[in-house]
């Protein structure tokens, strides 16, 4: 689609230089025909017949270029220049004079009709352009509406999936967590019966690690089911982010990644459940640190956007392609070998429960930026 089209816009007139050039050409043609008319011998009737019909060329051109008034004006000019030739050079023959005067009448008729047709054609062209602009605008509005409907449908499908996950989490919490705790306790007891380095000791270690991983999945399910904001209070965004930066600074140093917070306006505040808001920020920042190679940097910026507080968390990692970017908020979708695929889904639900939005900007090879938008507190 192209840019917006003004439905009331009229076709632009020709440039002034072009208008002057056309007028000069018409004047030269009319002057040349008139000069040859006056200078040609009277006995060469066939030449005069040719010259008087050549006058139709500038009349038609003037009507085509300048519309009705151009055709009429040029016809009147030709009539004024041709009339003295009839009176002073052909005045002896009444029949011939009548023929010449009828030719003058034809000049004006042709100029008027051609100008009228040109004017009507221009009006129709303007109407067609306005209709085309209106159709383009209607098409663009229909396309935008279709995109909005698609976004709403996708949000409804995601809400349905999350609702199903919430029901599953309630069942898993009861049926899985207690057996998992028993399995882990039993495995830790068995581990003491085998010396480190033996195959059975390694098998028990694997059992303990997998039990811990399964327990994390269950806990993520529980978070998914419980992500309704509790008591809302005024939270200063920069202070909440500083807390998370402090918590993750050791992880950043271990990975040799520079982590910095940029908040020009440190008074921006939102109404939120502070604990859940910190959890959402922590998930995003940890993901950014894990995606950034050694020597890279993760930048957190806070800035107001009208009535919105926008938090941008950018990393210098490898970025993500379009296919993955469209799925990163889906439950269970992950590119990490030991990931659960629920971290960003939980984070998005937290942000949306606070009336905000979570988006991603990324292209393969140029890093990733997570964009959090939350309504400002008043």
Mean pLDDT metric: 81
The percentage helix is 55-70%
Overall, the morphology is rod-shaped
Low-confidence stretches: 1-11
Strand order of the largest sheet: 2-4-5-7-6
In whole angstroms, the N-to-C terminal distance is: 39 Å
User: Mind telling me the C-alpha Rg?
Assistant: 41 Å
Order of helices and strands: HHHHHHEHEEHEEHHEE
Number of helices, counting only DSSP H or I runs of 4 residues or more: 10
Largest sheet: 5 strands, mixed
Q: What do these coordinates show?
A:
With 378 residues, the chain is of the alpha+beta class. The chain has helices at residues 16-39, 45-54, 56-89, 94-175, 177-191, 199-226, 237-255, 274-291, 322-325, 343-353; strands spanning 233-236, 258-263, 269-272, 297-305, 308-315, 357-362, 368-375. The strands form 2 sheets. The protein has a 5-stranded mixed beta sheet. It has a two-stranded antiparallel sheet with strand order 1-3. α1 (16-39) packs parallel to α3 (56-89) and α7 runs parallel beside α8. The model is unreliable at 1-11 (pLDDT under 50).
